[in-house]
Amino acid sequence: MRDYQTRPLDEAGLRALAAKLGLLRARGMMRVNDELFRELKLDTANDDQLYAALAAHPKLLERPIPSWPTVPPSADRWKTSRRCSGAET
Fold it and tell me: Residue 8 and residue 11: Cα distance in Å, rounded?
């Protein structure tokens, strides 16, 4: 497990994570309702600006995001990374 606060991902790492998650936009892995998101006025930001904001402010990363180097044997039906929403059963 990686502590995103003490070892944050850089922009390249965030882009790679988004690709693993199958996300086309950075916004899909951001806490868009967070006060910091509003303070930074990111509502009209493009993806480059959003990845830069995520790298500078790891708190904006929607979490948890379990990620494995390869698919664990017990989870062969899952992608190597996925965003947890709590609504899934």
Answer: 10
Coil, strand or helix at 47: helix
- Give CA–CA dist 27/34, Å, rounded: 12
Q: Which residues lie across from 30 on neighbouring strands?
A: 61
Residue type, 21: L
Each of the 89 residues of the chain gets a pLDDT tens digit; together they read 677 778 888 999 999 989 988 889 999 999 999 999 999 999 999 999 999 999 999 999 987 776 656 555 555 444 445 555 554 44
- Tell me if residue 51 falls in helix, strand or coil: helix
Please choose, from the candidates 23, 8, 26, 21, the residue with its C-alpha nearest in 3D space to the C-alpha of residue 65.
21
Query: What does pTM read for this prediction?
Result: 0.71
Query: Could you give the count of Cα atoms lying within 13 Å of 37 in the half-sphere of its Cβ?
Result: 18
